[in-house]
Design a protein that fits this description.
The complex is a heterodimer of chains A (168) and B (423).
Chain A (H helix, E strand, L loop, with lengths): L17 H11 L9 H12 L4 H11 L3 H10 L11 E6 L2 H5 L2 H12 L12 E6 L11 E3 L2 E3 L4 H10 L2
Parallel strand pairs in A: 1-2
Antiparallel strand pairs in A: 1-3, 3-4
Helix pairs in contact in A: 1-2, 2-3, 3-4
Chain B lengths: L17 H6 L6 H6 L2 H11 L11 H5 L11 E6 L9 H7 L1 H15 L3 E6 L4 H16 L15 E6 L9 H8 L23 E5 H5 L1 H7 L1 H5 L9 E8 L5 E6 L4 H7 L10 E5 L10 H4 L6 H6 L8 E6 L4 H15 L5 H18 L5 H14 L7 H15 L1 H8 L4 H5 L1
Parallel strand pairs in B: 1-2, 1-4, 2-3, 5-8
Antiparallel strand pairs in B: 5-6, 7-8
Helix pairs in contact in B: 3-6, 5-6, 15-16, 15-18, 16-17, 17-18
The chains are: A alpha+beta (168), B alpha/beta (423).
Chain lengths: 168, 423
């Protein structure tokens, strides 16, 4: 994956929208410490914006009442938190064991050619980002591809062509 | 060969919805549970012989009984739904097809261990699955099975879903607790064990989804009904995930104790046309590989696996045929564990990286026999020298490939004259 040590500033203050604000307040009552809200709050920020900016890190830290460095540390440890904007369609290809045995490389190679990007990159028009990820837990229907969280199982190049045509 | 205990409602349309689940028996055992004393529930689970389905196979009832007596602190339940071990895809089926079985199991467990707060730790990649699970929890709250007064009893129980965000290590139970507490998933030194000092410094039980979902059947039908399945020491049923190079990969519920090769042949359709068996990974990527000869005598239970110097693990079986390049498979596995190392302990963080470099060097045609020996030596030097067993989850299988398929590694370095001098 790309550099995960740097945060990007947007120059625009971050706040949760009403829906995320309500979800934050619902969840915070469930934990005996506010620090437990770091992972859920990072998810809320990412759902809202698609990625997590320096401003979002600061906002979450203030909201929870902890240091921004603690939120930063968590955000960089967990690979699913996007620390820069991803493509409109974020494509993850499972690279591990059963998907490897059943031809994930053909899928990755096809996507590299078709999208003109390597795993870890975002296309110039911002439409697509590609990532090779570790086991997605769909080994019985390998190889598996995930697009914006939706799973596509038993994939092959033909099915991938059809799928890409729908991603506009 | 297949049975329907955990998967009893899997084929019923919309069984993830509470009305459908209830029509088919969900939550029916709770009245009986609340008429029992918590200690009686624990004893019943002990008698059933249920063993932890996350991979370790530790007896579930016994684990519960490790909670300190006369405890004044809150007790927590953490349900491990991280399911990140490559080749493991069983718990996902419970989450999506019958989440109410797990919620009912959580109520049973929490009542038995006197807990009022359960956290379900679900891996972040399970995006669609978490929605089904949360909807089921919301339904259970609305129906009075969760909340301030469970089933009208003077008993509060809150269940909260906590999403991970892409870290295999959080399936390790103390890393999971760290993650719920809002930190990096770096495992804790044990002791103290979580049953004594776990979440927020309080006694905590961590059970796998499948273990928890097994409870309603046991409470409804009794310990003997559960023990009617499986073997004496490995009773019950298990959701086996069979993947890799077979005709019919998939998730199958089977009683424990069946012969491995028969299961692959009759349940998973056997090998593809014209192929021969090279090896079988019996219980997830971290379990040592079995050769075709070894596989002939293995049965799917904890004891038989141990007797063959491997592990039952998570029941994730991967079939390897003669098209598989073992050295490249090993590269794939080491890459996984190196990527997932939490970075806390040097032998794991650095050592797995060295192993990856060496195996890449061998594949690139630049390796020597000395490199193969160095891989073996690294396995020995890394294993058991770290806080948790992630590094061993890499070195144990890698050592098995090096021992059992050494000729494949040697084939990569054979042409290299320097191997003579390197010895």
């Amino acid at each position: 994956m790309s550099d995960r040590s740097q945060l990007i500033e947007t120059g625009v203050p971050f706040t949760f929208d009403a829906q995320r604000d309500a979800e934050f307040e619902r969840l915070v009552k469930r934990y005996p410490t506010r620090e437990s809200m770091i992972l859920p709050a990072l998810w809320l920020a990412q759902e809202q914006e698609g990625w997590i900016s320096a401003e979002a890190i600061g906002y979450i830290a203030d909201r929870i009442g902890t240091f921004a460095s603690q939120v930063f540390e968590v955000a960089t440890f967990y690979t699913m938190y996007n620390l820069h904007p991803m493509g409109k369609f974020h494509i993850c290809v499972c690279r591990t064991l059963s998907c490897y045995l059943l031809g994930k490389q053909e899928i990755v190679d096809y996507l590299k050619r078709e999208l003109g990007i390597k795993p870890g990159e975002v296309s110039k028009d911002g439409q697509f980002s590609l990532e090779e990820v570790e086991c997605l837990g769909h080994c019985g229907t390998a190889p598996v591809v995930q697009v914006n969280g939706e799973f596509y199982e038993n994939m092959n190049v033909d099915k991938l062509k059809e799928l890409l045509a729908t991603l506009k | 060969m297949q049975v329907k205990v955990l998967s009893a409602r899997f084929d019923i349309p919309d069984a993830h919805k509470i009305e459908v689940a209830k029509e088919n028996g969900a939550y029916a055992t709770l009245e009986k549970v609340f008429s029992m004393q918590p200690i009686e529930v624990i004893e019943l689970v002990k008698q059933s012989g249920l063993r932890g389905r996350g991979g370790a196979g530790f007896p579930t009832g016994l684990k519960w009984s490790f909670l300190p007596k006369n405890n004044q602190k809150p007790v927590y339940l953490a349900v491990n739904s991280d399911e990140s071990e490559p080749a493991t895809f069983k718990d996902r089926h419970i989450l999506v097809l019958d989440p109410h079985a797990m919620i009912e199991g959580i109520i049973i467990c929490c009542y038995a261990i006197n807990s009022h707060d359960a956290y379900i730790y679900i891996r972040g990649e399970y995006t669609t699955q978490v929605k089904v699970l949360q909807a089921a929890i919301d339904e259970a709250y609305a129906a009075g099975y969760l909340g301030a007064s469970v089933c009208g009893q003077d008993y509060r129980l809150d269940v909260t879903v906590h999403r991970g965000a892409g870290a295999y290590i959080c399936g390790e139970e103390t890393a999971l607790l760290e993650s719920i507490e809002g930190r990096k998933g770096q495992p804790r030194s044990k002791p103290p064990f979580p049953a004594v000092e776990g979440l927020y410094g309080c006694p905590t039980i961590i059970n796998n989804v499948q273990s928890i979902a097994s409870l309603p059947f046991i409470l409804t039908n009794g310990a003997d009904a559960y023990k009617a399945f499986g073997t004496e020491k490995s009773p019950g049923t298990h959701l086996f995930g069979i993947s890799g190079l077979v005709k019919k990969p998939g998730m199958y519920e089977l009683p424990l104790g069946l012969p491995l090769l028969e299961v692959i042949e009759k349940v998973a359709g056997g090998l593809r046309e014209g192929r021969t068996l090279k090896g079988i990974i019996p219980g997830g990527s971290s379990t040592p590989v079995l050769t075709p000869e070894e596989a002939q005598t293995v049965t799917l239970d904890y004891e038989s696996m141990a007797a063959h110097k491997t592990m039952f693990g998570s029941g994730g079986i991967v079939v390897l045929d003669d098209t598989v390049d073992i050295v490249k498979l090993v590269e794939n596995l080491i890459h996984f564990y190196h990527h997932e190392s939490c970075g806390q302990c040097t032998p794991c963080r650095e050592g797995l990286g060295w192993m990856l470099k060496i195996v890449k060097k061998i594949i690139g045609g630049n390796g020597t026999t000395a490199d193969i020996n160095l891989l073996v030596e690294l396995c020995d030097n890394i294993e058991m020298k770290t806080v948790c067993v992630l590094s061993a989850a890499c070195t144990m299988p890698v050592r098995s490939y090096l021992n059992k398929f050494r000729h494949e590694f040697e084939a990569y370095v054979k042409s290299d004259v320097s191997c003579q001098t390197a010895m």
